[in-house]
Amino acid sequence: MVIVGGAGNNWGAVFGALLIYITWMISDPLSQWLFNNVSNWSTDMGWGAIPEIQSRASQMRVFVLGVVITIALRYAPRGLIPEVVKREA
Fold this sequence. Notes:
The protein is mainly alpha-helical.
């Protein structure tokens, strides 16, 4: 949460915590919906249903969090709300 939000800023840490929490809560039902639709489509095509959709959705949740952290580190290495350093002149 601190990595995503920003290590030197309290608001960054709070924002990172909210972003990770929202991602965690949304990713499981969204991945179950996706796997159910793909399973129905593959059954209609004659390929068979996807087994163990619940466990696959839980694994997808962890994968999505990894993607969020990777994207945050790639494009905002100091965090989404980085620390502002004030320099005395």
